[in-house]
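Got a spare moment? Tell me how you read both lines of this record:
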Amino acid sequence: MAECSHDCSSCNENCDKRDFHIDLNEKSSVKKVIGILSGKGGVGKSLVTSLLASRVNKDGFKTAILDADITGPSIPESFGVGDERATAVEGEDALNPVVTDSGIQLMSMNFLLQKETDPVIWRGPVIAGAVKQFWSDVIWKNVDFMFVDMPPGTGDVPLTVFQSLPVDGIIIVSSPQQLVRVIVEKAVNMANMMNIPILGIVENMSYVKCPDCGKEITVFGKSNIDEIAKTFDIPVLARIPMEEATSRAVDEGDVESLDCDYLNAAAQKIESLLK
């Protein structure tokens, strides 16, 4: 069966009856796949991905991150492994993921570049092919939860992930600004069209806590996340504050050290998929 070019006007196939899922490497094991999605950039998808993988890992589950943001990968830097390189498996056409200090398995385009600052100047179908290879050509070892950090928007890569990987649910990342409402709705509508369960919404940059009095200050104005969640009947799983400690840990590649109580509900929702 021919590869999908996403150009429906030139296709004679009935996509409703096609199975686009691709197989893992025979030596891989991944139980649940969670997509991290937003309709726009700059809202903190990579941060949320890193924090959730670290949080669930601390609860005793084996976690992994597939960095599907091929042209703008940032996951390696958050974990302090930006200089690492993925290693080929001897005698096989496969790769071993890079493993962090706490045991989180990572695969990112930066691990395959000669220099991490080298640009990836590829068109959509080639980028989508790389995402598929990260799933099929990497030996993922006994993973309970794989988090897929997707690029912004609702284009080739999210479509490839939804069609090619057995996604068990997605988390939509938002921010408090009013303009994000339309962007969130786009992500929700795409997930519904693809029949992918929405686990909930995580609002990033939700507030700043005053270091003196503890008052929560809404820098971007009153959030409309509850209204959005009610409209689509999906839960708000977390509100992530803007904190110096978080920013410093990410910049220093030490995101695993953060203890984020505000992610408890999100972690419980994810972990319930196995329980």
Notes: The chain is about 30% helix and 20% strand. Residues 45-58 form the longest helix (14 residues).
